[in-house]
Amino acid sequence: MHKKVFRPLSLLCISILSAQVFAQSSEENSNVTYPSAYFAEYAPITVNDMLNRIPGINLVLTNSSSSSSSDRGLGSSAQILIDGKRLAGKSNEASSQLDRIAANEVDYIEIIRGSSSDLDVQNSGQLVNIVLRESLSRSNVSTEVNATHFADGTMEPGGSLAWSGQSGKLTYLLSGTVVSAYEHTESFEHSINGDLSPNDTVAFDRYKEQTNYSINSNISYALTERDRIAFNVLYNESNPPTELFRVVTNLNGPTPVASYEREDIPATSDNWEFGGDYEHSFAGGSRFKALFIVNEKNTDTLRERFVSTSLGGAETKNLFLSTLSSYSERIARSSYTMSLGDGQGLELGIEAAQTTQESALKQGVLRATAGDPAFGGLTPVALPNANSTVEEIRYEPFAIHNWQLSPRLSLESSVIAEFSEIEQNADGHIKRDFQYLKPKLDMRFNISGSLQLRTSLERNVSQLSFADFSRATNERDDDQDTVAGNTQLEPEESLRGEVTLDYRLPNDGGALNVKYFHYEYDNKIGKVDISTPTVVQSTNGNVGSAAAYGFTLNGSVKLGMLGLPQALLTAAATIQESEFHNDPLIRSEHGFAPYDRGNYRVSYRHDLPQYQMNYGMTYIGRWQGGRILYDVDNRYNLALAHDLTFYVEKLGFAGLTYRFEAANLTDHETCPKRVRYDGNILNEIAKEYEFTCSTTGRRFAFKVRGNF
């Protein structure tokens, strides 16, 4: 058997053998239920306030399966259910509702650790089911007002308003939010030449004046005892104009020479989504489900750069870069679920989707020739595939079989057949067809009611990013304004194996979790060399085989043994490695994002019900040195940010909750490094070393929340 198949498959075999060895306990049910009374002493405002009091909730919400959430389509997995149902939405899905549902609407919260055909989705890890109170009539208004103070003295307001309730057979949630995404980045870069002589320094300030506006609604209606219909609507708008100031000091001459650059980057962005679903339950326990989603996202960004030889002096425009993009989806999914008897259930269905992306890119530069008003008065640059329309038509019939092999052992098997056609119109017309078969096995064994062993084996096929098909702007390298597209990209294929051991401590004392994963890739996407005799350049392309593997360790423990029964300590760590087996770009093994060395997280939360308050802090760090991005003419050592946050919250005047938050308390600087080469990276002739450090500064926020 080929090595890449053997490794993940061996995980499944070992897990099944382990399940038989440890089959010694009579405890069967591994689900955990928290009634609303459990949270009463904490006076929660929203569902999120309730979830934050559940030991190990971060393990549930972050310990997803090996299947990455697809960029296109809907799929059969979800992590959050409301009344046992998934929401017919992508952007407007259940997790985005947790701060909008009032806590007094909740009857109980259930952590589902098993898989079953009775569930509305495939349980790829663990599920959170939020069950609302049944009532002929109820209504709640949740509101929040806040203000955030940034390091440069800027103060930005925000807030939200949500109205939720039930009237007879109608359940509804209407909400709106205003969130500031203001950001001021200060950065300083110094570089040296290949011979180690000084080259230049670059100091810049970037200001992003962004505010996000969102309106959404979720409405469901029980047509009969067996029929239910629901609708979801979302609208987001964001106008994130950015302004950048840069001072470049050239150190190559006998005396330093400074130049000044200013960039105006006005931008607009909006997206909307409309979804609906219908479900009918038959008398024998079978059910039929159908849903649809229609969405669209539009962005318009203009970048213009002006240079001057003196501060405040006359400016000359030397760059015009305009980007337009429109992305839309039309998704329909239906299925029929039936019982096969003897603890078996089968779901048969099909998902169909049409996805379209239209993009247009215009670049103008300062030349001696006459400019074009349509390019900001500059000279147009001919860009291949700058105007592109990509459309995908995809059909995915699927079958999901659940089998309760014993009271404590279950096996879920599924298979998805993908048939898709991708058509692109740019400089030419290209149409390609793809067919894939994607099987998956998921085994769960309850060693006891608290200890569960899970294993999965899956063949995964990634979805291609349409942005890689056409010419696009380069957000990562100021020296390269655009990057080439690749119309010949093919999806990555991978075989993914995981083994997870999950233990919930007695007496609601916490949870422990350890997972080992191993993924083997074919057609892995990386950078490929498309240089010509006159231009050195690369694009995203299929490189070959690769692998990623590692451990994730999680623990969430109440500190009752230290006399602090209301204190919760949570820690997590990921230790991982990845490797391209034979990357032709640099002809050696190396890692790839996002599987760098890993990360770690430590959180402490302490509730003081007698004072109607709580406080906590979180530190997030990352193992450095593992994430290196290679290009045809440079190597970029990515530095990942660390973060220390703190909050304190108290129930006070007028029954409102007052909360103070502080973020990036260490004022951490992110300091990546880049080596630029003279010609191809394989020549190993360094021409410049860049060292950059940047920070966004500390942030402080004050929030007032309440239910009415």
Structural class, by secondary structure, is mainly beta
The termini sit apart by 64 Å
The total number of structural domains is 1
Let me know the CATH homologous superfamily. Answer: TonB-dependent receptor, beta-barrel domain
Helical residue percent band: under 10%
Rg over CA atoms = 27 Å
What profile does the largest beta sheet have? 22 strands, antiparallel, barrel
The coarse overall form would be globular
Question: Which class in CATH terms?
Answer: Mainly Beta
What's the number of extended β-strand segments?
38
In percent, how much strand structure appears in the residues? over 45%
Low-confidence stretches: 15-27, 64-70
Helix tally equals: 3
Which second-level CATH architecture applies?
A: Beta Barrel
Global mean pLDDT? 86
